[in-house]
Structures are given as C-alpha cells and as structure tokens.
Write a structure and sequence with these properties.
The protein is an alpha+beta fold. It has three domains: 1-27; 31-85, no CATH class; 135-269, Jelly Rolls (Sandwich), CATH 2.60.120. It has helices at residues 33-53, 57-83, 87-95, 195-200, 226-229; strands spanning 2-3, 10-11, 135-138, 159-160, 171-189, 203-211, 216-220, 233-254, 263-269. Strands 3, 4, 5, 6, 7, 8 and 9 form a seven-stranded antiparallel β-sheet that branches.
C-alpha cells in the first residue's frame, strides 16, 4: 500500500489523488504552454529555412507577397478616386468659369444611331403659302394718296406719285423678311374711284419689275377702259420667282386728260 506524502493516509496504486486531503499522487504536471511555444518556434524556423534554402520557394513566396500588397494598394486607390477628382478633371474644373455655359457640339464624324445618310438624297422642298409682304415704300407720294392704299382691298383708293411731271422712274417696293414665291401679279392700273377720275389721271403704260436677286423684267400694259381696268391686269411669269422684295418702276405712262399724276389702285401677288 502507498501512503499520502502530505497526510499519511493509505492510498491504492490506482488512486490519482489522496481520498483524505486531495493531494495529487506523484510529481506535479508541468504546464504545456512552454511545449506549445517551443513547437511554434520550431515550425517558424523550419518555414524560414524552407523558404530560403529550397530552390524556387523563395522567389515564389516574395512574388505572392508582392501580388497581395499590390491588390491592397489598388483597392485603396479606387476608394480614394471615388472621393477625389483626377488631375485632368481638376484642371478642367479650374479652367471653366462658373457662369460659362458649354455647348457640347458633336463631331462631324459622329452619326446618331437613328440617322441614316444618303449622299445623293435631295433636301425636302420648301412649301410657300400665299405671298405676303410686310412693308411697302415708295419714292414719292401725293398728299392723301399714300402707297398703303394699294393693299387695302379697296379700288376706290389709290397711290399717286408726288413729283412734277408724269412720274417717270417713280417706284413702289414691297418687301418681306422671308422669301416669297410669286407666280403672277394682278395690277389694278390707274385711279379707279370712278370713270371720270380714272380718265382724268395718268395710268402706267410700261413698268419694270425687279426682284431681290437683282433680276429685272419689263411689261407693257395695254390701254384699257375703266370697266376693263377694274378687272385687273395679270402679269404672269414664265417661272415662279423666289424673292424677298418686288419693286415696280414706272417707265412710261398713259397721260390723264386733266392731271399729270400717275398711279394704281391695288395690287395682288399670287
């Protein structure tokens, strides 16, 4: 039988501690922390020796380390770029005034996906409505017979030139900001208030018609009675004229029986 070293109580060979005082049987067990630490040091030493002395392992280890380090740095740069503009963006921001408005004009080489280009495709023709001139002026006018009378839709009013003589080379011009398409002109020649007034005043015998492009044509107007003159004298062009102005100039006249004043009552553009 064995006895406890502390209290002297009897112990069997299979008892690990004294049943009387609880004292462990035999020597105290040493802590295992020193053993684990020693194993760790040996493992690290073996790893370092393996890396440095086994061919190819050293190079692969440092390559792996550099790759890991590069990935970490790239992620940091991406995170920084989200918050901070690049140098080129900063320069653009520095050179653009706050009040500036930028118009982004597309390059001629850039074509929209929905745009198809055909080299020989003609442009669409411009549609013109009835001729409409905004302004009218004249070289001279007789008092109470302004040139605006020629567009008031009233044959009882008329424009009469205001110079001495028969009014040769006096003119009236109708103009507009936009192009007008003219195929013909209807002129109500003379002062058509009544038969007597018509005969007492001069009528246009020959006139020139000048367009905004400088083209000039001349027309002889037939001598007409008062009733025929009220129907209007139609001047038709061989081809339609596209113009912003029409200038009528008196070249010759039918003299009035009492007055030397010449003019016309109304004009229509068709």
């Amino acid at each position: 039988m064995l006895s406890c070293k502390k209290c002297g109580a009897q112990m069997s060979g299979i008892d690990l501690v004294c049943k009387n005082c609880g004292t462990p049987w035999g020597k105290k067990h040493k802590s295992r922390e020193g053993i684990y630490f020693s194993i760790l040091l040996l493992t690290i030493a073996a790893g370092i020796a393996y890396i440095y002395y086994i061919p190819g392992v050293k190079e692969n280890f440092f390559k792996f380390y550099n790759n890991v380090f590069a990935i970490i740095n790239s992620e940091k740069k991406v995170a920084q770029n989200i918050d901070e503009p690049s140098e080129s963006e900063q320069q653009e921001n520095d050179t653009i005034p706050e009040d500036s408005t930028i118009i982004d004009t597309p390059s001629e080489d850039i074509v929209s996906e929905n745009t198809s280009i055909t080299e020989d495709t003609p442009s669409e023709p411009i549609e013109y409505g009835p001729p409409a001139f905004s302004w009218v002026s004249t070289s001279s006018t007789l008092v109470n017979y302004p040139v605006s009378n020629t567009t008031d839709k009233d044959l009882r009013t008329a424009w009469l030139e205001g110079v001495k003589g028969n009014g040769i080379n006096e003119w009236v011009i109708y103009s507009s900001e936009k192009n007008q398409k003219i195929s013909s002109i209807t002129l109500y020649n003379g002062y058509l208030k009544n038969d007597k007034v018509y005969l007492n005043n001069g009528r246009i015998k020959k006139l020139s018609i000048e367009f905004s492009d400088g083209e000039i044509i001349t027309r002889d107007l037939e001598k007409a009675s008062f009733y025929d003159a009220k129907k209007g004298y139609v001047i038709t062009f061989e081809k339609p004229r596209i113009t912003t102005s029409v200038k009528l100039t008196i070249l010759d006249v039918y003299q009035g029986s009492y007055y030397t004043d010449t003019g016309f009552s109304e004009i229509e553009f068709n």
